[in-house]
Amino acid sequence: MTGKNMRRAVAFLVLTLSMLFTLFGAAGAEASQQVFKWRMQSVDPPGMVGPEITQKAFCDRVREMSGGRLDITLYTAGQLTPTKEIVESLGAGTIDISYTTVAYYAGIVPEAALEQAGLPPLILDSFRDAVNLYWYGELGDILREGYAKEGVYYLGAVPWEVPITFWSKEPMYGVDDLKGYKPRSFGYTAKTLAKLGASPAFLPHEEVYLSLAQGIINGSMTDGSYYERMKYYEVAPYYIVPGLSNVQEMCLLVSMKSWEALPDDLKAILREAHIHFSLDHGQHLVNAYNSMMARMDELKATVIVWPEEEQKKIRQAGLEFFPEIAAKSPGCARGVEILMRYLKEKKLVD
Questions:
Q1: DSSP 3-state assignment of 197?
Q2: Residue 122's closest CA among 187, 189, 193?
Q3: Which helix H or strand E contains 39, and what residues bound it?
Q4: N or C terminus of the chain: which is more exposed, having fewer CB within 10 Å?
Q5: 231 touches 98 (CB < 8 A)
Q6: Residue 78, CB half-sphere, CA atoms under 13 Å: how many?
């Protein structure tokens, strides 16, 4: 090839590459401006801290951080899909993201039993422990692997330090009083209470008040601050502390189809927004709980404090389910090892 022909070939190549870069650059710019409209379903009914304040703020924050490119509309419990079917709906892509809990899905995702809400009672000791185990430790990765099998991306845990406690229509002073107790409960806490003589039933939040009023159940358990917000004090005036866990944890789950459709920068925004939401949500619930505890007389509620020896009985009964959890899957076995190591380090077990 002559020098003249070489120059022509180089010029042609440069022109071709320039056109390709322009074409793909325009396509990339167009893709970067794509707006993703998501639907988020919470397990919380209207009037709770999440739908009123923190989950709404999460959607607003993502919208602002993304310049409007990720636009999430919030729906409350049951508006788009039954609460117990959220994992299936996420897997099918009929909803995009959810604030929810393992309490509903342990039968679908074995590893979900490792989430705090699925564990036996009185395992985790503090908020910092939950953060270390689920954000920085291996438990988050194990959960991510488990949910992925159902077409769901586990964005992360949402822990906070308000006790999961319980309340009753009749006074209760220790483990012996659990016999005949019919509470709303879930996960291995429900199994532990049953082992100690109770008859737990699992109900979504939206069904609990009426069931208490009608005597279908005679108690309930969940985040301690729900006692006031859901007006459970009207139908179950005995409030037991310190409860069944010193810390609790929900999670944010995302449809894998929706997650994989996002560009990397929007995925990064969701990860940052998850952390901010967790801290914001937790602090609002802590504030609500402290305010409620200062007003229990006004609510005409009787607070009953269970001594440490009664708590130990509950924890010990729950630990007997660890082999059952470990047998669910290799991930569950790894998770139980991590939790047992944690319990020994905290001197919560011998």
A1: coil
A2: 189
A3: strand 36-42
A4: C
A5: no
A6: 7
Question: Rounded to two decimals, what is the model's pTM?
Answer: 0.83
Q: In which residue are the tokens 């070939």 written?
A: 9
> How far is CA 188 from its chain centroid?
16
CA distance 115 to 322: 13
Range 118-144 burial, b when 16+ CB lie within 10 A, else e? bbbbbbbbebebbbebbeebebbebbb
SS3 150: coil
- Fill in the amino acid letter for 219: G
Q: Bridge partners of 254?
A: 97, 153
- d(CA 193, CA 182) in angstroms, rounded, equals 10
User: Is residue 83 classed exposed, middle or buried when 0-12, 13-18 and 19+ CB atoms within 10 A define those classes?
Assistant: buried
Mean of pLDDT values over 189-195:
95
Distance from C-alpha of 123 to C-alpha of 128, rounded to nearest angstrom? 13
- What pLDDT does residue 19 have? 45
| pLDDT number for residue 32 | 62
Q: Cα–Cα distances in Å, from 56 out to 47, 111, 222, 265?
A: 12, 29, 22, 21
Query: Is residue 168 within 8 Å of 215, Cβ to Cβ?
Result: no
SS3 224: coil
Tokens of 199: 């008859």
Enumerate residues 6+ apart whose C-beta is below 8 A from 272.
Answer: 65
Give the separation between CA 124 and CA 133, rounded to whole angstroms.
10
In the three-class reduction of DSSP (H, G, I as helix; E, B as strand; rest coil), residue 158 is classed as strand
Question: Among candidates 216, 217, 113, which has minimal Cα distance to 167?
Answer: 217
pLDDT tens-place string over residues 248-273: 899 999 999 999 999 999 999 999 99
What is the reported pLDDT for 20? 39
**What distance in Å separates the CA atoms of residue 11 and residue 40, rounded to the nearest whole number?**
52
Evaluate the CA torsion angle 317, 321, 323, 326 in order and state its sign: negative
- Residue 86, token pair as written in the block: 């959220």
